[in-house]
Every structure is written in structure tokens, then in C-alpha cells.
Amino acid sequence: MLPTDVIVALIAFAGTAVGSCAGIQKANQMVNFRLKKxxxxxxxxxxxxxxxxxxxxxxxxxxxxxxxxxxxxxxxxNET
Length: 80
Hints:
mainly alpha; 95% helix; transmembrane
């Protein structure tokens, strides 16, 4: 039969091993959860950047059309 000290040490080791494994598993779950949240935030940010780029292009185009209309109005104004 094993001495009492060895049995206590084995039980303590088993408890420590189980606790460590459980802690590592929980930490991994939290990291994965946060990573998914960050991925979603990055995706939303990327979508926003794409939308802003489209708005900027549209605004640029609208400014060109406004400038053209303004030039046409100036030409008509100068003709009269």
C-alpha cells in the first residue's frame, strides 16, 4: 500500500491538473468569444468604409455635375 503522503500528493496533483485544464479551457472559450466579437466589429467597420467610399464617389460626381451646370448658367448669363 502507498504511504499516506504519496496518496495526498497524488490527489493534490490530480486536483491541480483538473483545475488547470478547466481554467485553460475557460480562458480559451473567452478568447474565442472576444475574437468573434472583434471579427464582427472589423466586418462592420469594413462595410462602413466601403459605404463611405461610395458616398465620396457619389459626392464627387455630384460636385462635377453642379460645376457643369454652374458653367452653363454663366455662359447663358453672359450671352444675354
